[in-house]
Amino acid sequence: MSGTVSNTFQDDMDTQGKSIPGSTDRSEKRFRFILALSGSLIVLLLLAILVTLLVTALPSIKEFGLFFFIGKVWDATTETFGALPFLVGTLFTSFLALLISIPFSLAISIFLGEYFKEGAISGFLRSAVEILAGIPSVIYGLWGLFLLMPAVRFIEMKIGVAPHGVGILTSSLILSIMIIPFSASLGREVITLVPGDLKEAAYSLGATRFEVIKNIVIPYARSGLTAGILLALGRAIGETMAVTMLIGNSNFLPTSIFSPANTMASVIANEFAEATGVTAASLIYIALVLFFVTMIVNIAGTYIIHKLSIESSKEVS
Amino acid sequence: MTGNHVKRRLAEDIFFKGIVCLFAFISLLPLFLILYYITRNGIAVIDWNFLSSLPRPIGEAGGGVFNAIVGTLMLIILSGVISIPCGIAAGIYLSENKAGKLASGIRLSVVVLQGTPSIVIGIIAYIWIVAPLKTFSALSGGIALSIMMLPVIVKTTEETLKLIPYHLKEASLALGVPYYRTILKVILPSGISGILTGILLSVARITGETAPLLFTAFGNQFMNTNIFKPIDSLPYRIFYYAMSPYPEWHSFAWGASFILVVLTLALNLIARGISVKWKTRF
Fold first, then answer.
1. Residue B156 confidence (pLDDT)
2. Sequential DSSP letters for B175-215
């Protein structure tokens, strides 16, 4: 639409006679070309990433195929590579982290979106959540090493399991803190979007605020809250540094939430620098899987948000 | 009977509000603990010597993170030079072409790139730059970080420019200003605060990234300003010191963390300040 409008303007101007019509026209074309080129470059970049991962992982894909996902052994000396321990480690840590973080992020969303929409407390909480999102991953890892790890080790000694300190539980705890801001900020937005007349209708029937939140706000905002959780999940799956520092770097299938493990991201971080040949290809194979999983989760989350924004703009107009 | 029923519902209501407030504030606890630990342990080691000298081998007293600070700044400049022009141009393209196959392709790519785990981007930069050149280098680190910056810049540029009223553009075109000059001299300057905010936020995002640097910029305990050689960076130094078994290096990790947190928070604050102060109102 905008393109056609500006084109007609451009034509008018050219026919009215510029001193050098040719040069404006050429700069004009060059300008549009550069814009489109930069845009296409991003699409090409993504395709190039995909192709690079596929091609460099090929030796491993050829050798292990789909058995890669059910193989329990990861051993560089015998060149047997199965990624099941890392898949389990990733799923375990991410879902545990989600489970821990949901009550908190939901509470923040309701607090900011319903109870205290503005004011000093809400401003404070909102900036605190923003700061939480801005702290680098490696610092979460450092803090986890010196505070969470001794705490988890203490618990492990109390209940009588091997006191590693590092492992799935420790990583999940740090991950849950790291992903709270992502679901909380989106949750706040969708909860503020719940139409006032719906809530007022419920209030006028005598509902308490709790009943309004439970029966009106949460059901209405459900898909938005889901999108927030999906984006947080995508973040948890791909998170590398803090997990690498706290998960204990063990290539065996985890047996409990206290056992050391490795996630897909952390095994790459731990081993890729020294890897060659099939080992490197297998690590890249894992990276390829990681890339696809986060891609699907993120596209799903964004799709839900997109649909929501279309719906809400329809309601306004 | 009914009185009890109402009382129960009211009690439930108050109880729920209490729970929400409690959980909301419990989730702030980690933030305070992290900031407290960083400040307490960080300030203890930071002095002029820590900021201005190079890392020393273990056993030797003193030493600092000067090369890491320089390296982080170099990496930021490198990645900015690569991603800012391309990101802004792509953002303009998206705001000018709201529909269309290429535009929706770009939007999808931006979403996917933004969600791509940083470690995967590290591997990509390794395969593209480190493997052919056969050496870890600042250049490869900069490229990895620029891939992480790109989606943020494109998105914020597009969103900023979308908000600029159409009549501004029409007025300029009606005066006979060519289309490209309209964009460069009217539209871009009106959106400059939003675009700058986006750039600063993306810089804040990459300043603390470690994972893409593990196999690219790598780390270097000496001073280096050659972009074809490995270079140190603050997050890498923190990782290196934190994973070492020496208590003295652990305290250095806290010191470096303090500098890094102050840097990223400052960037975030400046970004927010710019978006509030310089905002063009229509």
1. 93
2. TT--HHHHIIIIIHHHTHHHHHHHHHHHHHHHHT--GGGTT
Query: Are the beta carbons of B186 and B172 closer than 8 angstroms?
Result: yes
Q: What percent of chain A has pLDDT over 70?
A: 91
Q: For chain A, say whether B118 makes contact (Cβ under 8 Å).
A: yes
Give every CB contact of residue B166 below 8 A, 6+ residues apart in sequence. A2
Residue of A1, A15, A49 for testing the chain B interface, max B β-carbons within 10 Å: A49
Q: Rounded to 5 degrees, what angle do the CA atoms B84, B90, B95 make?
A: 125
- pLDDT, tens digit, for every residue of A21-77? 566 778 888 888 999 999 999 999 999 999 999 999 999 999 998 889 988 899 888
Could you give the CA distance from residue A253 to residue A251 in angstroms, rounded to a whole number? 7
Residue B241 belongs to some domain of the structure: yes
DSSP secondary-structure letter at B280? P
**Residue B27 sits in the same domain as residue B152:** no
Residue A4 predicted with pLDDT over 50: no
Q: Inter-chain contact B26–A40, Cβ cutoff 8 Å? A: no
pLDDT tens-digit profile of B74-108? 999 999 999 999 999 999 999 988 888 999 999 99
The CATH number of domain A74-316 is 1.10.3720.10: yes
How many percent of chain A have pLDDT more than 90? 59
Residues 165-224 of B with CB under 8 A from A: 166, 169-170, 173-174, 176, 178-180, 182-183, 204, 207-211, 214-215
Give me the DSSP letters along A31-63.
HHHHHHHHHHHHHHHHHHHHHHHHHHHHHHHHH
Query: What is the DSSP-derived secondary structure letter of residue A167?
Result: S
The per-residue pLDDT for range B6-64, each reduced to its tens digit, is 889 999 999 999 999 999 989 999 999 999 999 999 998 888 888 888 888 777 777 78
CB contact under 8 A, B115 and A234: yes
CB B233, CB B75: distance < 8 Å: yes
- The b/e string for A253-268 (b: 16+ C-beta within 10 A; e otherwise) is bbeebbbbbbbbbbbb
Structural domain boundaries of chain A? 19-67, 74-316
Whether residue B12 contacts residue A210, with contact meaning beta carbons closer than 8 Å, is answered with yes
Structural domain boundaries, residue B35: 2-45
| Residues B262, B141: Cα–Cα separation, whole Å | 22
Continuous segment of H or E residues that includes residue A201: helix A196-204
For residue A104, what are its two tokens? Answer: 């908190």
Contact B116 A294 (CB under 8 A): yes
